[in-house]
Design goal:
single chain, Rossmann fold, binds adenosine-5'-diphosphate
Length: 192
């Protein structure tokens, strides 16, 4: 059979987006631990899947356990953690995949590094804005209790700062919105 693709070029993003009939984008969820990033990401992914859209969720569990398993929580390692996450995200986005990144990413510096690597046009910052008191009350993984006892140092919200994003594309106040309402707001923003 005749080869319809030139053998010297890898296929371009455009070819993949055409195949999938969707546009690649990074949805960068930022917010305190327990704010609802993963919960909303999982619900969003299900909703997009129903619409026939291909997604990938990246979070601490699949990243820290794998590609970043050799990194700790020093300043240099936190930056390397985000750099690798952003590079991986970029590969997914360039494959046309809607990539949902769930990372506390507490500082402007860290988020702007991710944005710079992924590219401004492909990066939507989504602020999961849940008050610290509520995250601490939820304490899904028991981490706040540990941080309060001093067993985890530099824990965001307790012993390390969280810088709220200045101009997020979407801001979700989960103490006022259901998970379904948050998902709806993101889908409206994506216009899909
Ligand atoms: P994160 O990924 O930000 O650390 P998780 O999604 O793991 O947070 O945990 C958030 C917790 O808050 C979950 O147990 C979830 O069920 C609960 N929760 C309660 N109300 C909401 C809401 N409106 N939106 C998102 N999460 C909520």
């Amino acid at each position: 059979m005749e080869n319809i693709f030139p053998t010297t070029h890898i296929l371009q993003r455009h070819d993949k987006e055409k195949l999938l009939d969707q546009k690649g984008v990074a949805l960068w969820f930022t917010g305190l631990s327990g704010s609802g990033k993963t919960t909303i990401a999982v619900a969003l992914e299900k909703e997009l899947h129903k619409k026939g859209l291909l997604t990938q969720v990246l979070d601490g569990d699949n990243i820290r356990a794998g590609i970043n398993s050799n990194l700790g929580f020093s300043e240099a390692d936190r930056i390397e953690n985000i750099r690798r996450i952003a590079e991986v995200t970029k590969l997914f986005v360039n494959t046309g995949i809607i990539t949902i990144c769930c990372f506390v990413s507490p500082t402007e510096q860290i988020r702007s590094l991710a944005k710079k690597i992924i590219g401004e046009d492909d990066f939507l910052e989504i602020f999961i804005n849940t008050p610290l008191e509520i995250c601490e009350k939820r304490d899904v993984k028991g981490l706040y209790a540990k941080a309060r006892r001093g067993e985890i140092k530099d824990f965001t919200g307790i012993s390390a700062p969280f810088e709220a994003p200045v101009r997020p594309e979407v801001e979700l106040r989960t103490n006022e919105l259901s998970v379904a309402q948050s998902v709806k707001q993101i889908i409206e923003k994506l216009k899909i």
